[in-house]
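Thread amino acids onto this structure.
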């Protein structure tokens, strides 16, 4: 059984790149559930399956494009209509969600990694499984390609759109954006370009490290007791911060907790479940006391770059961080000392 937390990518690995379009509720209408939680119903699924050939080049081995007939949000939201160019009549043409979901999963096996651009689609897929009262465990590893693109191709490490990456790689725009299949297809081409354009082993290593288990909770939070002394709110004395939430073992410290400006950061690692990013942001309550709002989560590439950059800033400038008044030239000179 492949490790869902950090699977090793090899020649047997396949990627099912998928994208969803979903309708939104009108909050003036009555629904049999809380629309603040169930805030979208899938109306289209598009997917492209990628495999490695003998030259380690990704090729398209299968495709999926299917419309889904909604059971609850049957009137197309005006915002969705504007983006997708669909009509209310289009919503009546699809198949049931269960059948569409089964078609998506039929593309997968134990060596498959699901891939999306951004985390919104995997979250919406699991939300719809819950909405339909289905088993929400997908049982397949998951990779967000967006930060992989940023890591290798985007110096500013921004949250870029699929279209931005398509333009970056000068990929021909054969399909209109904002259909599920088109966006899945473009994402698959971006993935292929990343593997082809940069060191293959490095890309493979980064993808493996960034692949997670979508069926487990990945983010955890707690608050520290309020205190008049702000320094106590930053203290990292709690076992909770340094313990793996999955196996309960003490994590190895990769970057010890350090305070910069209004937050403290740390990086830990569990031998079985990977790296954990910890951030403690200190806040003030109505009584004038300080408390720490701590987030611990499975470390993403974006988290790793954040904590490493903050540590570098801390080492150079100290607790106060980079002075805002310095010019770029002065900042570069100080950082190169």
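Threaded sequence (337 positions):
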């Amino acid at each position: 059984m492949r490790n869902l937390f950090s699977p090793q990518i090899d020649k047997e690995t396949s990627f099912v790149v998928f994208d969803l379009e979903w309708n939104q509720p009108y909050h003036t209408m009555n629904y049999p559930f809380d629309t603040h939680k169930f805030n979208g119903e899938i109306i289209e699924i598009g997917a492209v399956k990628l495999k490695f050939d003998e030259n380690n080049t990704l090729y398209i081995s299968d495709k999926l494009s299917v419309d889904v007939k909604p059971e609850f949000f049957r009137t197309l939201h005006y915002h969705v209509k504007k983006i997708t160019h669909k009509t209310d009549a289009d919503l009546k043409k699809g198949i049931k969600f269960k059948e569409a979901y089964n078609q998506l999963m039929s593309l997968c096996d134990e060596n498959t990694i699901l891939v999306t651009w951004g985390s919104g689609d995997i979250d919406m897929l699991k939300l719809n499984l819950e909405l339909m009262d289905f088993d929400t465990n997908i049982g397949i590893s998951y990779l967000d390609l967006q930060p992989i693109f940023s890591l290798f191709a985007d110096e500013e490490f921004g949250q870029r759109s699929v279209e931005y990456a398509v333009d970056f790689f000068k990929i021909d725009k054969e399909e209109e954006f904002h259909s599920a299949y088109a966006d899945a297809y473009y994402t698959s081409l971006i993935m292929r370009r990343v593997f082809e354009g940069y060191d293959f082993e490095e890309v493979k290593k980064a993808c493996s490290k960034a692949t997670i288990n979508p069926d487990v909770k990945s983010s955890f939070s707690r608050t520290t007791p309020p205190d008049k002394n702000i320094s106590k709110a930053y203290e990292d004395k709690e076992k909770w911060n340094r313990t793996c939430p999955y196996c309960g073992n003490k994590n190895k410290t990769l970057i010890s907790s350090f305070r910069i400006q209004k937050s403290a950061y740390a990086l830990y690692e569990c031998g079985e479940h990977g790296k954990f990013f910890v951030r403690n942001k200190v806040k003030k309550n109505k009584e004038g006391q300080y408390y720490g709002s701590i987030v611990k989560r499975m470390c993403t590439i974006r988290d790793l770059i954040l904590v490493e950059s903050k540590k570098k800033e801390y080492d150079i400038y100290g607790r106060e961080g980079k002075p805002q008044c310095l010019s770029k030239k002065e900042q570069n000179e100080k950082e190169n000392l």
